[in-house]
Amino acid sequence: MLESAWMPYQDVGLLILRVAMGILFVVHGWPKLNPNSPIRSSWGWGRGPWPWASPSKMLVAAFVAKRGFMKVPFVAQQTTGWELDFILLAASMALLFLGAGSIALDSLLGL
Asked: Does pTM top 0.70 for this prediction?
């Protein structure tokens, strides 16, 4: 019953999810793109024509580097765990299967 009450607003929910994810990707990605950032110079991010990471690179970074090499737990107290990487990957996969919804720029851009 509650599902039918919210059904007309499912596109609004997809918009909220896309905007929130976009904000997180920009906030966490900007230090990696900024040429003056200590993160970019120490980690070597941003080399090549596409400075941002693809989802497969993000998956490798989260599971191989943080979980395997650095032995970081899912939620870490003294450092950053890989819970943010996990939720961004899960939300990206959900949007992949659900689509952008009707409140999107896709029709304006011809996509």
From this structure: no
Residue 25's nearest CA partner among 99, 109, 85, 93 is 85
Q: How many Å apart are CA 81 and CA 71, to the nearest integer?
A: 10
Tell me how crowded residue 12 is: count the other CB atoms within 10 A of its CB: 13
Query: What 3-state DSSP class applies to 29?
Result: helix
The predicted pLDDT at position 20 comes to 93
Q: Residue 62, Cβ neighbours under 10 Å: how many?
A: 20
The tokens of 49 are what? 């024509």
Q: Say if residues 61 and 53 touch (Cβ distance below 8 Å).
A: yes
Which pair of tokens denotes residue 38?
A: 């200590």
